[in-house]
UniProtKB/TrEMBL annotation:
Span of domain HD-GYP: 131-326
Keywords of this entry: Hydrolase
Keyword Hydrolase: yes
Domain HD: 153-275
Alphabetized InterPro entries for the sequence: HD/PDEase_dom, HD_domain, HD_GYP_dom, HDIG_dom
Recorded superkingdom: Bacteria
Gene Ontology MF term list: cyclic-guanylate-specific phosphodiesterase activity
Name of the molecule in the record: Cyclic di-GMP phosphodiesterase response regulator RpfG
Keyword Amino-acid biosynthesis: no
Phylogenetic placement of the source organism: Bacteria, Bacillati, Bacillota, Clostridia, Lachnospirales
EC number(s) on file: 3.1.4.52
Organism: Lachnospira eligens
Length: 367
């Protein structure tokens, strides 16, 4: 029986491994002749192993090869390009786009018509995305691969809902509390629907007056949800997701002890998605730059109990990714430094570079 190499996101339940699968440090993750199921596939992708060998039972051309061409040099195909070419990403994007329209309609209905919030209907689409991508690191891969698409208020709200849900899983929250986080993410910026579009999409820096109007979105959003029959934590998240633990946030300048947990988590998801997304006034920032910026604020503006596990898991999601260093060299992330999350160990050809011990050298781009 012949074998074929497939991208892990295109692996199917029932495929049979034609070779052992090893972790980057050489340990066997799955043995040859293992019959793949969803949990095994998720475990392999969670270790950021991109390709596996399976027995070819039908000799059909793979979908990825059709996209990239038979003669494509897979060594030179960038990681996110592979994801975008995969069957799983196409399904993710289709599901994502379909649900954005439903969520947009639901949020607009609440704002424009003062309609009751149908929580079950609102969260249905987000849960569909989560269910189809139960591996949290894989879901981050999908979101990162969507960065080339427009980031509107509605897209941002869905992203924050997904990121908050993942963080809730990493923090081992109950299913009920994760549901609250997900709904809070969907509704947190509902007030922005009432902000003038010329302010939301302004390509330059906002004036003081414009910024003061922008900040009103938390009050506008709270006014729309305060009398709705929903959990108080969701209402608090709409009002308080821009508060900072050191008291420098708005609208009240609350300090950590007075900021609810859900609002603190939505704040983390909100900042991460905003910084890693393209905006009308700038391109998307490099995730390692975002990790560095957020880590510097981890013990002041954010709740360390929540932000540190988040940043560690996000940084780990880039293991095995190709990156460009600030000196122009191209390499692959092989290990994350727990005490310097934005400065991983990178392999450039045969050289292993510990960025935490190399002054002035950083990751400038994910490739």
């Amino acid at each position: 029986m012949t074998d074929k190499t497939i991208f892990i996101f295109d692996a199917q339940e029932g495929d049979k491994l034609a070779d052992d699968v090893h972790t980057p440090d050489g340990n066997i993750l799955a043995k040859k002749d293992t019959i793949l199921n969803y949990d095994i596939i998720a475990n392999i992708s969670g270790h950021h192993i991109l390709e596996v060998k399976v027995y070819d039972t039908n000799n059909e051309l793979q979908d990825l090869e059709k996209v990239l061409g038979k003669t494509a040099n897979k060594e030179n195909v960038k990681y996110f390009d592979k994801i975008r070419a995969s069957i799983r990403f196409k399904h993710f994007k289709k599901t994502y786009d379909e649900n954005i329209l439903d969520i947009k309609g639901g949020l607009n209905d609440v704002v424009m018509n003062n309609s009751p919030i149908d929580i079950d209907k609102l969260i249905e689409g987000t849960n569909e995305i989560l269910t189809a991508n139960r591996n949290s690191l894989q879901l981050f891969d999908m979101l990162h691969s969507m960065r080339q698409f427009d980031d509107l208020t509605y897209v941002h709200s869905v992203n924050v809902a997904l990121i908050a849900s993942i963080l809730g899983q990493w923090l081992k929250f109950s299913e009920k509390d994760i549901r609250i986080l997900t709904i809070s993410g969907l509704l947190h910026d509902i007030g922005k629907i009432m902000i003038p579009n010329e302010i939301l999409t302004k390509p330059g820096k906002l004036t003081v007056a414009e910024y003061n109007i922008m900040k009103q979105h938390v009050n506008f959003g709270y006014e729309k949800v305060k009398n709705q029959n929903i959990d108080i934590r969701i209402k608090e998240a709409c009002l308080l997701h821009h508060e900072k633990c050191d008291g420098t946030g708005y609208p009240f300048g609350l300090k950590s002890d007075h900021i609810p947990a859900v609002a603190k988590i939505i704040a983390i998801a909100d900042v991460y998605d905003a910084m890693t997304s393209a905006r009308v006034y700038r391109g998307a920032l490099c995730p390692f730059e975002v990790i560095d910026t957020m880590y510097k604020d981890a013990f002041t503006k954010f709740e360390p109990e929540y932000i540190l596990p988040f940043l560690k898991n996000v940084a780990s999601s880039y293991i095995n990714n190709d990156v460009r260093l600030s000196d122009g060299r191209i390499g692959k992330v092989v290990l994350i430094n727990e005490n310097a999350l934005s400065l991983p160990i990178v392999q450039c050809e045969d050289e292993f570079i510990d960025l935490s011990k190399t002054r002035g050298l950083t990751v400038s781009a994910i490739l």
